[in-house]
Amino acid sequence: MTDPFAFSEDQVAIRDMAAKFTAEKITPFAAEWDESAHYPVDVWKAAGELGFGAIYVSEEGGGIGLGRLEAALIMEAMAYGCPATSAYISIHNMATWMLDSFGDAALKERYLPGLVAMETIASYCLTEPSSGSDAAALKTTARREGDDYVLNGTKQFISGGGVNDIYLVMARTGEHKTRGISCFLLEKGMEGLSFGAPEKKLGWNASPTAQVILEDCRVPAANRVGAEGDGFKFAMAGLDGGRLNIGACSLGGAQRCLDEAIAYVKDRKQFDQPLAAFQNTQFQLAEMATELEAARALLYLAAAKVTTGAPDKTRFAAMAKMMATDTGSSVVDRALQLFGGYGYLRDYPIERFWRDLRVHRILEGSNEVMRMIIGRDLLN
């Protein structure tokens, strides 16, 4: 992978550390995890020892206090081995960052140390069965009763649902569509908190997905993150970074498939010559590599804007997410085509990446919503 930016020594060291971790702890096992739907919790704990559970959590909160560019470098490197694994690291970081940024001192003292070390694992619960792209239309309610809130509703497509320890749940505490939403921290085992059956999915099999079901779930008011009514604001603030991370996951996975395709066409012979000798093959590889570098450059630019809080950061995060995930899927699809029938077999990693990257165009806001965000910002 070439560097479109002149990275600092620290940034290069971070990226190389993530690549080494991936080569040793993820890549050799990723196909088996996919095949058996194994959730590699032991790998999460090892990642936590490197600080990857709290990449942009403040140093005061126990994190390593890095920016969004460094986070993107880590996600991209880890997705080279397994996009589902890397994407889950993103989800955990988003939940941990939200607690560090908006929780009160007592709540952070109680929960942050375990989350930072990835000794406890977090899920982020916003989407509902009837509110996907229109996230503010959520119907889960939180009714105040003395020192508690009573939550009722269902969250859909929750990564780690039923397995993870901590759930950051967005619930309605008021009538206003956005200012009536609050954020709550729930622990697995709380009375009234249950989970649906694991979803059977096209990809991301190394990351379990299930409904989170709340039936008169009593949560201490002390477990509210931030002020009542501020939850949707927190959720949207987290999504800028989440969109960058999922874009980085697409780039890392697509880069792996491009590298696999280059090696394959050098070795595979048809009509008495390597596939690499055909001009069509060379043109395909040239386009794939160029598109990846263009998407990478935009993503790194957007990461810098989100880190510095630039006024157009949300638009650039949406642009980068859209371009990186569209490009990633396209590159992997063309890599599979270069492999021919072998690309369709599980003997090679291409089909797994093809399945895993497809959902990235839906996650963290679909790419249709990204286009809406970009267009509205341009016309504002």
TrEMBL record:
Residues 8-119 form the Acyl-CoA dehydrogenase/oxidase N-terminal domain. It holds the Pfam family Acyl-CoA_dh_1. PANTHER family: ISOBUTYRYL-COA DEHYDROGENASE, ISOBUTYRYL-COA DEHYDROGENASE, MITOCHONDRIAL. Gene3D superfamilies: Acyl-CoA dehydrogenase/oxidase, N-terminal domain, Butyryl-CoA Dehydrogenase, subunit A, domain 2, Butyryl-CoA Dehydrogenase, subunit A, domain 3. The keyword Flavoprotein applies. Residues 124-217 form the Acyl-CoA oxidase/dehydrogenase middle domain. SUPFAM superfamilies: Acyl-CoA dehydrogenase C-terminal domain-like (SSF47203), Acyl-CoA dehydrogenase NM domain-like (SSF56645). Belongs to the acyl-CoA dehydrogenase family. InterPro entries: Acyl-CoA_DH_CS, Acyl-CoA_Oxase/DH_mid-dom, Acyl-CoA_Oxase/DH_mid-dom_sf, AcylCo_DH-like_C, AcylCo_DH/oxidase_C, AcylCoA_DH/ox_N, AcylCoA_DH/ox_N_sf, AcylCoA_DH/oxidase_NM_dom_sf. Keywords: FAD, Flavoprotein, Oxidoreductase. This is Acyl-CoA dehydrogenase family protein. Signal peptide: none annotated. The lineage of its organism: Bacteria, Pseudomonadati, Pseudomonadota, Alphaproteobacteria, Sphingomonadales. Its cofactor is FAD. Residues 229-378 form the Acyl-CoA dehydrogenase/oxidase C-terminal domain. It comes from Novosphingobium decolorationis.
